[in-house]
Every structure is written in structure tokens, then in C-alpha cells.
Specification:
By secondary structure, the chain is mainly α. It contains 5 helices and no strands. The protein has helices at residues 3-14, 24-33, 46-62, 64-70, 82-99. Helix 2 (24-33) crosses helix 5.
């Protein structure tokens, strides 16, 4: 098992606006979206996780409104939790892209 992956998932559930889930498919998805930046996330270590996390949150912040819009959820249902909800949406989206 991968300790960084497990730890990141637990931390992302606890504080989704501070930690991204370090998952092979999410990494592949983010890498395909950020291929111009050249971040490969090749090594399974803390420094690579920090780069991935920064890229994840940069993308999430840039697309927050779109994530909420395309979720087709009434924003009033998630008032105060918009960013947390969007982190999970983005993670799921990256996993789908990464599996393709």
C-alpha cells in the first residue's frame, strides 16, 4: 500500500480545502491537463505531492464557479461548503480523465 496516498486521502476528507487526494488516476488526469507546465508527478514522495497539491488547488480555484455550475446542485444546499464540495468534484473529474 502507499502511505502517501492513504495519508493524503484521510487528510483530504478531514480538510478538503488544504489537502488533495494523491491518487494515481488523479495524478494522471492532472498531468494530462497540465502537460504544458511539465509537472509529471513521477516520484511517489512528499515533494512531488506538494507540487501536485499546488497544481490541484490552482486548477480548483480557477474553475470553482464552473465546477459548481456543472454539478447541477442548488448552491443553497452547499452554502458555506462550496469550496469543499468543489474539491471533491475536481478530484472525481481528474480520476475520470486519468482512467481514460
Amino acid at each position: 500500500w502507499n502511505r502517501i496516498s492513504l495519508t493524503s486521502k484521510l487528510l483530504a476528507i478531514w480538510k478538503p480545502t488544504e489537502f488533495a487526494m494523491w491518487d494515481r488516476y488523479a495524478r494522471d488526469g492532472l498531468r494530462s491537463l497540465h502537460s504544458v507546465r511539465g509537472h509529471r508527478y513521477n516520484r511517489n514522495n512528499a515533494s512531488q505531492y506538494e507540487i501536485f497539491k499546488a497544481d490541484f488547488f490552482a486548477l480548483m480555484n480557477a474553475k470553482l464557479e464552473d465546477l459548481l455550475k456543472y454539478s447541477q446542485v442548488d448552491p443553497r444546499e452547499f452554502q458555506g461548503f462550496e469550496k469543499e464540495f468543489s474539491c471533491r468534484l475536481l478530484d472525481n473529474y481528474l480520476v475520470v480523465i486519468g482512467k481514460a
